Amino acid sequence: MELERKVEFVSELDLPWYHRRFFQWVLSLLVPPVGLVLLWRHPLMRRPRKWVLGSLVLVHLVIWIGLLGALGIQVGWFALDWKGGDLPELVLRRDGPNYLLLEQDREARERARNDGATTNRIQTVAAYWTDFRGPGRAGDYEEAPIRTRWPTRGLPALWQQPCGGGYASFVVAEGLAFTIEQRLNKEVVAAYDLETGYEVWTQAHEALFSEWMGGDGPRATPIYHEGRLYSLGATGNLRCLGARTGTLIWEHDVLADSGSENLRYGLAGSPVISGEQVIVSSGTANESGTLLGYDMLTGGLLWKAVPEQQAYVSPMFATLGGRRQLLVVTASHVLGFDPENQSVLWEHPWEVSYGNAICLPVVVDENRFFLGAGYGTGGSLFEVGSGDAGLAVKEVWHNQHLRTKFNPAVYHEGCLYGLDEGVLTCVDAATGERKWRKGRYGYGQLLVAGDHLIVLGGEGRLALVEATPEQFRELASFQALKGKTWNVPAIAHGRLLVRNSAEMACFDLGLPRL
After folding, report:
1. Residue 39: is its pLDDT beyond 60?
2. Surface-to-core class of residue 87, CB atoms within 10 Å of its CB (0-12 exposed, 13-18 middle, 19+ buried)
3. Using the 8-state DSSP alphabet, how is residue 217 labeled?
4. Taking burial as the number of CB atoms within 10 A of a residue's CB, which of 122, 233, 442, 481 is the most buried?
5. What is the CATH topology of the domain spanning 316-401?
6. β-strand partners of 90
7. What is the pLDDT of residue 109?
């Protein structure tokens, strides 16, 4: 009778019919193990029989716990979230934006600005961090010295507030910090005042890329160039906007232009500027080409090249073997590309399991660059030089010391630093020898600034580490953000910008004023 009353109670819950039926099955499964336990405790039961009954109880409980877990995921009590490791983790809730909180925050800050509390200030200082991972996409901040003695509670926060979803970073120009976010069913390019965090303008495009493992929202960071902002959404929408006002100048669907299908985890390569062109990578293999060049002023499609499937890697310029070229990582190769005549200068096989090439190359010197990956691939140092028919490439070394899954390494004074499956590692760039491996930061990101590393951990912890091959030395750390954090930090004018899919913040990283 007690079980019947429980089943009747479940039937009255305001749940979908399949949730109610599942709940009833789970409650029904409680009866056999309770009966078995009572039988096991009976004084007439012998030891061998007890072992049999005990095994039955254990098996039944395992099945029951599994079904209860499935029910919890179905009704939203908890969820599976992939934090970057080999298996998803069971969490109370998946990290993501709170759109109601976001709108309330924007409305409150807009009222405060209208009341005259603070006004937007456009700086006249020269633009510096205008590209993904900074100048040359190298992840190296050299504009000014940074603060290396952090307060116990962490760096001073200029502002911290909710934001939309996605994995883009920031670029900074004209006193504004630009990024792209997912807000409900729209990809929104947004400009924020660098000093106050006030939202200056937004420009939205109706699009939603959703994938349970990688998460929702745009992946590619915009690029700023001469008063214009170029952004690429996860579903292929390429936009050119006026940086001061967010006015739409032109837009294209790069997947339609290339005749490609989208990649499994969405388009993730940031646009790159080459002379009067903006170059962007698209999706799956196509005979006409998946690397596209557009006129940066008019948006006219100029050319298509490289028929291979693209990877989740932003193309970047480098001077190797005495020639400036575009480094392009596809799903099967790394290659040097000349945008002037749309020719491939050299190429080398580079395949990552499941097609998940994600990390940018890291230029080491005038002839060599490093490329790393997770999924059992490891890292390689390549050398580009003169060959019989132009430029040629060879692999100098390969090992498993820098398995950078989706967090590119950085280079500083002869050494490569990166998160080897979540553990900070220093490797000699010339030989591939590992100097040290210590400091578990998860699947976050890092930059180099002066003689130090700025490490943003996979759960939002921000750390300052000495960039030295001698030993691992963490100088300071504090919790900067909450939840899963895969976005690359940005630094401009002494301001450190960090974000994830739920919140963003700006910290004062500059030297204290005397």
Report:
1. no
2. exposed
3. S
4. 233
5. Thrombin, subunit H (2.40.10)
6. 80
7. 87
Secondary structure element (H or E) that encloses residue 64, with its range: helix 47-75
Q: 105-120: per-residue pLDDT in tens?
A: 999 888 887 776 555 5
DSSP single-letter state for residue 137: G
Q: What share of the chain is helix, strand, coil (3-state, %, to 5)?
A: 15, 40, 45
- The model carries a pTM of 0.87
**Rounded CA separation 345/357 (Å):** 21
99-139+161-312, which class in CATH? mainly beta
Structure tokens at 295: 């006129």
Contact 249, 300 (CB under 8 A): no
Angle between helices 2-11 and 17-28 (to 10 degrees): 160
CB 171 within 8 A of CB 131: yes
Distance, CA of 250 to CA of 34 (rounded, Å): 68
In the chain, the amino acid numbered 367 is: N
Which residues lie below 8 Å from residue 276, measured CB to CB, with a gap of 6+? Answer: 295, 296, 297
Mean pLDDT across the stretch 312-327? 97
Instruction: Report the distance separating Cα 168 and Cα 6, nearest Å.
Output: 48
Q: What are the residue ranges spanned by the domains of the chain?
A: 2-79, 99-139+161-312, 316-401
DSSP 469: S
Q: Which residue type, as a one-letter code, is found at position 242? A: G
Q: How many residues does the chain have?
A: 514
CB 291, CB 301: distance < 8 Å: no
